[in-house]
Design a protein that fits this description.
Helix 6 packs across helix 7 and helix 7 packs antiparallel against helix 8. The protein has an eight-stranded mixed beta sheet, with helices on both faces. About 45% of the residues lie in helices and about 10% in strands. The protein folds into two domains: about 280 residues, no CATH class; about 110 residues, no CATH class. It is α/β, with parallel strands linked by helices and about 475 residues long.
């Protein structure tokens, strides 16, 4: 009748005018502004390649942990570009960066009469505003990396023993070789550095011996030479990553799988901020966790939904979780990771969110196409999430770009946050700034065919 508001259609319910994005980094010592500048530069490249408009602006003077994005992106209701994906970059390869269930989402809308309205909706809802917040724990990372040379070698011994005594390192090796090699790399690199330093010390001692110098003087000089070489290697770690990775694995394994106290306290702060956003006027609240930030995001959202399950209601924001390049088994396979395993099992059954996990076989630092719930041995009957898909670097990057990045392992681990020359159904900027919810974008998407779901973890106790 006249004056009665028409019902909200399914197409409109999954359109996004206003979105809140929370980004949880991995074990990174970087300041939040680095993520903002990466988003700015890579987003501009992706917009140029794909033919849409995207611009960043500060939210408030002095706000370095967040930013606002306005985007105009035409898309079909299923998340495909309106005119289909382009064949590749317009101007050739770019420079380097500056800085589910088996059936897919089950709560996504089905095809129906309202699909005919989607074109009109697309025309009237063109601009999307997305506000970003980086949930910072880089200060905790930097504090954990303050150990000196001797303390780092002690860390290496403790961490290696934790993974060896439980047999975890062998199970991880059978899961995917790439990240296991990455885990062993800092141990072998530190040992190699120590060997080189000792050889230099011996060389100094023997050289001084031929000159007939006193033994005490020779040993003192050899000790200084050994220490100097170790110090030099420490200074070069920005290229070698041995100390950085050692601190990363030691931080995660220090409690045998338990979250460190400082991080657990910070996660409560994260949960409070996300829960507050879920009570505000947003069309979607999207949480993005990268690398170690992926399992942090799982635990944070689990805490929120245990305390206050989201009931379907008009005006309630859609909740999405996007995990990128996860390293979940590095923690969930440890004996005392009961909380994380419980959170994985809990979140995998929720009907009040959409969880999409994106990895790529080309990323040697992630457990590519491994269902983090299933391989951890805690998949419940009727598991809904995550929907695991591949970013397929070899297909979505141009041949020239792939050749450039192929052996830059740590740069590839951040490719999920960067532009693609031939983006497929994974486009970080469409997901975080485009007009569709995560649920609508991946509606009906099947998991990648080579997904590994076989349980590989004997430690399945949960908290």
């Amino acid at each position: 009748s006249v004056g009665r508001p028409r019902p909200v259609t399914e197409a409109e319910r999954h359109q996004v005018r206003r979105r809140r994005v929370f980004y949880i980094p991995g074990f990174d010592p970087f300041h939040a502004r680095r993520y903002r500048e990466t988003y700015r530069s890579e987003g501009a490249d992706q917009a140029r390649i794909s033919g849409y408009a995207l611009s960043l602006a500060p939210r408030a003077p002095g706000d370095v942990t967040g930013w606002a994005v306005r985007a105009r992106i035409d898309e079909a209701p299923n998340g495909a570009p309106r005119d289909g994906p382009r064949d590749g970059p317009r101007d050739g390869p770019r420079d380097g960066p500056r800085g589910g269930s088996q059936d897919g989402p089950r709560d996504a809308p089905r095809d129906g009469p309202d699909e005919a309205r989607a074109g009109a909706v697309r025309e009237t809802i063109r601009e999307t505003l997305s506000e970003f917040d980086v949930l910072v724990w880089g200060d905790i990372v930097r504090h954990s990396m303050r150990h000196g040379i001797v303390a780092t070698y002690a860390q290496a011994l403790r961490t290696a023993w934790i993974y060896l005594k439980s047999g975890t390192i062998f199970r991880l090796a059978r899961l995917r070789k790439g990240p296991t090699i990455a885990a062993l790399y800092p141990v072998w690199a530190l040992l190699a550095e120590l060997l080189v330093a000792l050889l230099c010390g011996i060389l100094v001692d023997e050289t001084l011996d031929t000159l007939g110098l006193h033994r005490a003087f020779r040993w003192a000089a050899a000790t200084v030479a050994t220490g100097a070489v170790l110090w030099l290697f420490r200074r070069l770690d920005g290229r070698l990553f041995a100390y950085y990775l050692m601190h990363d694995y030691a931080f995660s394994a220090g409690g045998d799988g338990r979250y460190p106290e400082a991080l657990a306290a910070r996660m409560k702060v994260f949960a409070t901020r996300i829960a507050a956003a879920l009570a505000e006027d947003w069309d979607e609240v999207l949480v993005v966790g990268h690398s170690s930030g992926a399992h942090i995001a799982v635990s944070v959202l689990s805490d929120i939904l245990r305390d206050a399950p989201l009931r379907p209601a008009p005006g309630r924001p859609a909740l999405g979780l996007l995990t990128l390049g996860h390293v979940v088994p590095m923690v969930s396979f440890l004996p005392e990771a009961r909380r994380l395993r419980g959170d994985l099992a809990f979140l995998s059954m929720r009907a009040d969110l959409t969880w999409v996990d994106v990895t790529a076989p080309g990323d040697g630092c992630t457990y590519a196409l491994c269902d983090p719930v299933a391989v951890s041995g805690v998949a419940p009957k009727g598991q809904r999430w995550p929907l695991c898909v591949s970013a397929a670097f070899t297909q979505t990057l141009s041949a020239a770009r792939w050749r450039e990045l192929r052996w830059r392992f740590f740069r590839l681990h951040f490719q999920y946050l960067c532009a693609f020359d031939r983006p497929g159904d994974y486009d970080y900027f469409r997901i975080t700034a485009g007009p569709l919810t995560l649920a609508r974008r991946y509606r009906g998407r099947a998991p990648s065919k080579s997904l590994l779901r076989e349980p590989r973890n004997p430690f399945t106790e949960t908290a």
